[in-house]
Amino acid sequence: MKTMLQGKVSTFGGPEDTGVKPDEGLALVDAANFDAMKDYFLSQQPTGTTGLARRLNPETPYIACRWEYATTPKKHLTKILVDVKNPQNGKSVQAKPVDWGPAAWTDRIADLSPGLARQLGVKTDDVCVVEIPHPGTGLSTSRAPDAQLAAARHRAVLTEGKIKAVFGAFDHRDSATQPGAIRILPPWPKENLVEIMVPQLKGLPHYGNAAFSGKFACHKKAAQSLVDAFAAIEQQGLKDKLLFWGGCHVPRHKSWDPKRGLSSHSWGIAIDLNVQWNGYNTPPAAKGRQGSVVEIVPLFESFGFAWGGYFSTCDGMHFEYAPEG
Fold this sequence. Notes:
By secondary structure, the protein is α+β, with helices and mostly antiparallel strands. The chain has helices at about 35, 50-55, 75, 115-120, 160-165, 190, 220-235, 295-300; strands spanning about 1-10, 60-65, 80-85, 90-100, 110, 125-135, 170-175, 180-185, 195, 215-220, 245, 270-275, 305, 320.
């Protein structure tokens, strides 16, 4: 079952939204679940602010509604995506619930991120339709319908021990200024990392809203497979599925948590794609939806990559080189 709302909308959130206080929080995001939703936020708190409302990345698809918690509890809302549709042009985008609002006196049913509004082609007080799945239905599962397959049929990632054996162990130091980040000590980086050019990624949006150059560092053993996988995506007419480049070699702990093991990104063997639509521990965008990577998964698997959409804790943006998986 679903709740369907139709009415006028506006936009909110991000560093430029002076309509929210510098210290204003969000009804559905706090310290306990921030890591699972961090892909909808800027990497750093904007200067002069302390609240999460100003830290929202306005280019990501998020939404505030006057949720009926008796029907769709807070815990349920933090795990789902909702459908937002512009009935005038038929465009539909999946968005992440982050807050309660707008106030009833505005006569609006929802506040959208500025980026979501642009994707839908709507401006303030235009009409949208919002479909909210109830618990146990629709998108409230831990994986999108396309990912509800036996993971055993798909390539598995390597254990950290196996990664060290295949791609080399290194010494590192935890960052003193950025929690969860690490610094890899010589000589491992020089001996193992190479820079590659992937033309299929050139010009894509990247963090900071800058167009990506197409060049990035990765492990030398994964380099050719990455180049070949993206070339195959273009050859199969699927280049239009590539909408956002999220990075490859990022030395850090898993989920930026110093208490956890090292992320495979530290070795330069993992990449993130279409981050906004495939957040950590949320359902990946289903086939046919904006931001979906489902159609390119088989191609990546054929070149030795495991897809995070099959992980027990879903990570639909994530592809990881696992040649012996």
